[in-house]
Amino acid sequence: MEILVFGVQADEKPLIEQAFQGHDEVRCLDVFLNEDTAPIAVGHEIVSTSVNADLGAGVLEILAAGGTRMVAQRSTGFNNIDLGTAERLGLTVARVSYYSPHSVAEFAWTLAMAVNRRIVRAATRTRDFDFRLHGLMGRDMHGRTAGVIGTGKIGESFARIAHGFGMRLLGWDVAENPACMELGMSYVPKDELLARSDLITLHVPLMPETRHLIDAAALGSMRDDAILVNSSRGGLIDTTALVGELRAGRFTGVGLDVYEAEAGLFYLDKSLEAIADDTLARLVTFPNVLVTSHQAYYTEDAVGQIVDTTVKNVLDYLAGRRSENVLVPRN
After folding, report:
1. Where does the D-isomer specific 2-hydroxyacid dehydrogenase catalytic domain start and stop, copy by copy (predicted)?
2. N or C terminus of the chain: which is more exposed, having fewer CB within 10 Å?
């Protein structure tokens, strides 16, 4: 059986091919799954997709009509999948429920420090042999307050880093994490966390109830000199409202590894094209904003775990087994 793998980055391809060796044949494609590319999957019982795939009703209909019976998503998030339609069509859907939380937490901290210490601006200057310090002043993080929105495994990992820097910790989540509390974290209402924190980092999943969790009102309650980091899902922030606040000169820095309209942009080379997304085009012009292309998870350790779990999900499907990774079980 040949398994078709969509949205494969060049660095991922050897890991995927090696992981499937001895199990099934695998064909890696660099194109992302959407309505235009879904017909490629005709005749393939199993397809694997990336986080930016379009797995809405239309795409799932095409896959099912072409003989696909199992979708193995290589991510923890699954907000891009119409699970109701998948169940109706008899498609098994699995995800990667866990991989290294340190990869995302460490990258979130990297974004925070990069905007705080003006690293990108400094590197650009020195490349031009401009060694002035004007405009590069940052702040000590020691003794300041980190607000962690979402204190699961990734949020906990971020909290441990912040604790190591000597920061006070505030948390907000539907359930308190005892490990975070042992670090000295105080759980407070979201509005209080936003108002008191020097650094705010987002680590919650994107669901209907969390979409635009950071809206105009939330942004307005934050300190003018706060740092905001999002390495979770772009839809957690109302980007239009964020641009408005940035235009008003607010915030020390904003680090975004995700963007709510990133599908069709991130992971692709658009350098020779005009960007029609005015919001993103405006966002990247602010000197205190750093945007990266959804790469927080992209370490050898995390990607290796993602690939290994994807292979396990495929083998479980073929053997009729069910695990905690299954979102829609096999009929």
Report:
1. 3-327
2. C
